[in-house]
Amino acid sequence: MKRAKQISKVIVLLFATLIITSHSALALTDLSQDELINKGFNAYEKNPCSTTTTSDTFTTANGKNNIQKAYNYFVDQGLTAAQAAGILGNLRQESGPNVNESSHNTAARPSSVSPGSIIPGETWFGGGIAQWEDSNGVPGRWTGKNGFLSFVAGKGDFAGKPQGDGKTWKDINIQLNYIWWELNHTEKGALAAVRTATTVKDATEKFERGYERAGKPVFEQRITYANEVYGWATAANAVAEAGTPPVPEHHRAAVRV
After folding, report:
1. Is the pLDDT of residue 145 over 70?
2. Which domains does the chain have, with CATH numbers?
3. Rounded CA separation 184/119 (Å)
4. What does the DSSP assignment read for 156-184?
5. Torsion of CA 49, 51, 55, 61, to 10 degrees
6. Which uninterrupted H or E stretch holds 91?
7. Distance (Å, rounded) from C-alpha 125 to C-alpha 111?
């Protein structure tokens, strides 16, 4: 009888320890998520309804802000966390990524095609999260037949397939879908290069060289932004998806710059 009571006490103590430990873990989890929210990423939310899309079948980005939405979008297309973060490092350097007035590419120069002839009332010569623009007065990634404005309006190579109302383009989903279209058509080489990347640094550099091709790339800042996104996303992923372990330390070390 005495032995039975001792066993019972041990069981009670073990149970109490488990309760205390679980509450401590919950508190740490909550703190980690709060820290992520303060940094502007929030908890990573995998879109339960999304699937990898083909280049001409578009999807809706899931998330609480543009950084999260864009990251989730590229992961949903089958890219790794490091590859998606590399793209985000570039988009953050280019625009934030912002879709409002701050995304105006004021350095862009006009081409022989007026933006207003594609989307009535449009006056910008370039902009968006990837800072699309034409080159040397030649219609291209902004006013070309397969440029962003034609994509939105459903004109040129996209005849009959407008995005949304065919006029409103300051929308994160529309812009992400255009990036994905380019990566599967006119910018295939960039996607192929990014898919070979195994680190955040490599993915960031390959996306810049293959897709953005900035005059002054400022790689250090792009890589810093990309590593921040990778850190927020992988930490938040462990918080938000029950049962998912955090990224192994050796993997984290491999993607640090």
Report:
1. yes
2. 3-255 (1.10.530.10)
3. 24
4. GGGTT--STTSS----HHHHHHHHHHHHH
5. 40
6. helix 81-94
7. 8
Cα gap 115→75, rounded to integer Å = 32
In whole angstroms, give the CA distance from residue 127 to residue 12.
Answer: 64
Cβ atoms of residues 225 and 95 within 8 Å: no
Query: Which residue in this structure is represented by tokens 């950084």?
Result: 67
Q: What's the rounded Cα separation, in Å, for the pair 99 and 58?
A: 18
**Token couple for 146:** 């397969």
CB 57: neighbour CB atoms within 10 A?
10
* Closest residue by Cα to residue 181 from 148, 205, 222: 148
Residues 152, 158: Cα–Cα separation, whole Å: 8
CB of 114 closer than 8 Å to CB of 146: no
Q: State how far the alpha carbon of 192 is from the alpha carbons of 206, 207, 211, in Å.
A: 9, 10, 11
Task: For residue 245, give every residue at least 6 positions away whose Cβ sits within 8 Å of its Cβ, in sequence order, or none.
Answer: 238
Q: Nearest CA to 203 among 169, 186, 177, 227?
A: 227
Q: How far apart are CA 84 and CA 1, in angstroms?
A: 62
In angstroms, the Cα distances linking 255 to 13, 59, 134, 149, 231 are 42, 28, 34, 36, 10
- What is the pTM assigned to this prediction? 0.74
pLDDT bucket at 25, cuts 50 / 70 / 90 = very low
Over the stretch 78-107, which tens digit does the pLDDT of each residue have? 999 999 999 999 999 999 998 888 899 999
Let me know: does 111 contact 140? Beta carbons within 8 Å.
yes
